[in-house]
Amino acid sequence: MDEKQIIEKAKAGDEAAMAQLVNKYSERIYNLALRILRKKEDAEDVLQETFLTVVEKLHTFDGRSSFFTWVYRIATNASLMRLRKKKVVFQEMADSTDFQESVESRVFIDWSQDPSINIYDEEVKQKIDAAVNKLSDIYRSVFVLRDLEGLSIKETSAILNITQENVKIRLRRARQFLRDYLSEYFEERIVH
Amino acid sequence: MTAKHPTEDRIKQICEIMGEDLDNPACREVMEHINSCPTCKVYYDTMKKTIFLCRENDCPEELPQDVNERLMKKLKLNRISLNKDNDQQIP
């Protein structure tokens, strides 16, 4: 039985079919929420919220997008709502025209080849976590979907319901922010 | 190795080719520049390493059994038993 048939059965009230759909996507949704929210309790809440919505709204799923895109959109929205409720303050990179796209023109150091910079170093791990935590919701969602989940620009755009051009702009800003944030620390580390 | 900072346009181009097919003509052109410009090469390498580190630091987890049990209970699907054959039928 292919996924379409299972969806039709689940729509008709077949609980085993619904359980199959949940079982197929639950781990990915849990990890998606964990990547965006970075807290296990919150990820579990989003997981439950997502599938409660799936059960409730499955009859409205018309197959125009893939089921994967539909479920991911529900989960991403639920994660972002939760992130916004937490009022995560993100001063370094607001979504406004005054975003610091231009970086100061200075001499900088190539830290990319330094073998001491790796994720087995607890301090490096903490810095990476801190950097990602500083991404505001709109940048974090694009970064997570494209760079961590490995989805395409097209898929990311469909899930977030924004244009592909917008995905590219947000992704560029997120990457630039992360590089600059980590560079400041790694350059310092190399020099001293 | 130290370098001056690349121009804003180059930074945009470097950020945009990350994760894309480097064989496509637009990416190839940017890569050609990067390979001939030490400043942009440093920016490209540190950007690439940034994304690499973020990915390495990202460890997807198996869904904990208790989390799964609570989910199925919440959905009132906890009495449904799935066998592996059923799961494998979904492509």
Task: Report on the architecture of this protein.
Chain A is mostly helical and 192 residues long. Chain A folds into 2 domains: 3-85, RNA polymerase sigma factor, region 2, helix turn helix motif (Rna Polymerase Sigma Factor, Chain: A, Orthogonal Bundle); 90-192, Orthogonal Bundle (Arc Repressor Mutant, subunit A), CATH 1.10.10. In chain A, 67% of the residues lie in helices and 1% in strands. Chain A has 8 helices and 1 strand. Chain B has 91 residues and is mainly α. Chain B has 5 helices and 1 strand; from the N terminus they run βααααα. At the A-B interface, α2, α3, β1, α5 and α6 of A face β1, α1, α3 and α4 of B.
Summarize this entry quickly.
The complex is a heterodimer of chains A (192) and B (91). With 192 residues, chain A is an all-alpha fold.
Q: Could you give the distance between the termini of chain B?
A: 49 Å
Low-confidence stretches of chain B: none
Number of helical elements of chain B: 5
Mean pLDDT of chain A: 89
Oligomer: heterodimer
Q: State the total count of DSSP E strands of chain B.
A: 1
CATH-assigned homologous superfamily of the largest domain in chain A:
Winged helix-like DNA-binding domain superfamily/Winged helix DNA-binding domain
Envelope shape of chain B = elongated
N-to-C SSE series of chain A? HHHHEHHHH
Biggest β-sheet description of chain A: none
Structural class of chain A: mainly alpha
Briefly note the CATH topology name of the largest domain in chain A.
Arc Repressor Mutant, subunit A
